[in-house]
Amino acid sequence: EVPDAIRFLLENEFAYDLAAVEKVKSNAQAGASLTAMVGHFSAVAEWSSEAAKEAIAATAAEQGVKAGQLMFPLRVALSGKSGGPDLGAMLAYLGRERSVSRLQRFIPQLSSML
To answer: I need a labelling partner for 14 at 20 to 30 A (CA). Which of 47, 73, 91, 94 fits?
Structure first.
């Protein structure tokens, strides 16, 4: 049995914390920012924690927000949780393909969750 705290790292199907999703939904720019993040992540040639953080910074600059404002929605999209391991480490572990896939799965569901 996989502990709930790390299930999202090992399994692609996981439940979203509804309170965390509600907080993401309260950010009117979250969907657009996460969509832009897909493009920036997809363009990264050599995936690493540092490269992912640079893509987050580039997305933030493009969206006219601070990088920190993207981190919570990104964390929820990737893990279903409001907390957990360092986001850079999480992105490095998941890899680009899984990270992009999770974003692409989360974005359309955002409007229908809850």
So the answer is: 47
